Amino acid sequence: MISHKIEFERPGLAKLGVSHTVVDMHVHTRYSDGLNSARAIAKRAVALGIGIAVTDHNEIQGAVEIAKAGNVFSIPGIEITSKEGSHLLVYFYETRSLKKFYHTDVKPFMGTGVMTSLSLSMEEIIQRARNYRTVVVFAHPYCAAYTGVCNLHFSKDRLEALMASVDGVEVINAGNLNKWNLQCAVLGFNLNKAVTGGSDAHSLNHLGRAVTYLPGEASRGDFLDAVKESQVRVMGKELNMFRKMTSHSSKIRSSIQNYPDLMEKNLRYGATYFNSKSKKIKENMRRSLMGKA
Fold it and tell me: What's the pLDDT at 291?
C-alpha cells in the first residue's frame, strides 16, 4: 500500500460491489487490440458486478456500443497515442461529446490504423480534450519504452508542465509490471492529483483485476467528479506472467499491419536512449577527470 487510496491486492469484487461503485477504467475491445466484443465485455462486467470504461486505442465504436447496453454502468473513453508514442486516457461525461471529440479532434489526425500514432503532440491532444467536459489521465506513466509519458522523449520541464495540465495518472495497471506500477503510485501520491486503476484488459478473464471505486451508488457524472476531486480509491493486482504473455501476443497480432510505424518509433526512442546514456557517460568521465586534477 502506497497510501490509503492505493492498495496492491486483488479486488474482492463480490464484497466490494455491495457497498461501492466499482469501475474497471481501462478496457479494450476487438475494435482496437482486444479479443472480445463490447457485448461480451458488458455481459462479463454484469456478472462481476462492476462498471466498465472501454478505452480503445484511437477508436470509440466499442465505447459507444457498451454505452447502449442499459444493464451495465459505463464510462465513455478513449486511449489516444500521441505523436511521441505515449498514451493518454480521456473519459467523457457524455457519449455524444466523445463522438464529437473523435470526429473533430482524433480521426483527422490518425495514421494508417487504430494502433498508429496521431500527428498531434501530447500537449495538443490535452488542449483539445480540454474543450470538452472530460477527465484526462496519463495511462501507465511508467512502463516499457515510450508508451508511458515518463520517458526520455520529454524533458524534465516539459514533463512537469504536462503533469500540471492533466487531472491525474493511472497508478495501477494490471497489464504492467509491479515495479512500474509502484513508480506510478508514488508519482500519483506526490502529485496529489486524481488516481485511477484499470486492468488494461484485452480478454474477458482480465476484467476487474484492477479497479477504481467509490463508496455508495453513483451516477456516471458523480463518479467522474469523484475521480477529479481525488475521492476515489484504487485496488488491483498485476496479471501473472502467463496472462501477460497471452495479452501481449494478442496485441502483436492486431498491430502487425502497423509494423512500420512501430519500428520507426522504436528506432527513434532507441536513438534517444542511446544519446542520453552517452551524455551521462561523458559527464561522469568529465567529473572523474576533474576530481583527479
Answer: 62
Q: Are 7 and 234 in contact (CB under 8 A)?
A: yes
Within a domain: 80: yes
In a domain, 145, yes or no: yes
Other beta carbons within 10 Å of 213: 23
- Cell numbers for 204, please give them: 474477458
Q: What is the per-residue pLDDT across 116-126, written as a single tens digit (0 to 9) for each? A: 999 999 999 99
Q: How far apart are CA 273 and CA 285, in angstroms?
A: 19
Which domain CATH number covers 54? 3.20.20.140
The reply to whether 133 falls in a domain is: yes
User: Which residues constitute the domain of residue 78?
Assistant: 6-258
Contact status, residue 199 vs residue 207, Cβ threshold 8 Å:
yes
Task: Give domain status of residue 245, yes or no.
Answer: yes
Cα dihedral: 23, 28, 29, 34 (round 10): -140
C-alpha triplet 56, 121, 63: angle, nearest 5°: 15
Number of domains in the chain: 1
Half-sphere exposure of 205 (CA within 13 A, CB side): 7
Residue 195, SS3 per DSSP? strand
Query: Quick one: pLDDT at residue 4?
Result: 79
The tens digit of pLDDT for each residue in 124-183 reads 999 999 999 999 999 999 998 899 999 998 999 999 999 999 999 999 999 999 999 999
Scanning the chain, the segments in alpha helix (DSSP H) are: 13-19, 38-48, 61-67, 95-101, 122-129, 156-165, 178-191, 220-228, 241-255, 259-292
- Backbone dihedral region of 273: left (phi > 0), alpha (psi from -120 to 50 degrees) or beta? alpha
